[in-house]
Amino acid sequence: MGAEFQSFDKETQTITMGFTAPESFITPRGSVQGGLVAGFLDEAMGWAYTHATDGTHSPLMLDVNFSLLKPVPQGALSAKGRVVKAGRRVVFLEAELFDTDGKLLARATSTCIPTENPGL
């Protein structure tokens, strides 16, 4: 997905990531294809949880719900992913996608199972 780590706030369990939507992601309508937008949001949510566990765990997504609020343009984008609540059996995550002007383009929530990363 071309994700670029920018920062992680341990206190709020929020990650900020950058993405670049290339021309190949653009539909005939002139915006990023919806499934790829979901991928950006999924990536931000997953990395938020992985960073929150210091890399020991990753989420196994049970469901992802997302809403496209505006057409997502080609080019630079930023996402914020956050751990809403993490238990032993279930993790709740959310993410938002923004354009370069900080306008909200899309948002998502996810319910996950916490899984240990192999080899740790």
Automatic annotation (TrEMBL):
Which CDD domains does the annotation name?
Answer: PaaI_thioesterase (cd03443)
Alphabetical list of InterPro entries matching this protein: HotDog_dom_sf (IPR029069), PAAI_dom (IPR003736), Thioestr_dom (IPR006683)
GO MF term set: acyl-CoA hydrolase activity
Chain ranges of the Thioesterase domain: 30-105
Q: What is this protein called?
A: PaaI family thioesterase
Q: Which UniProt keywords apply?
A: Hydrolase
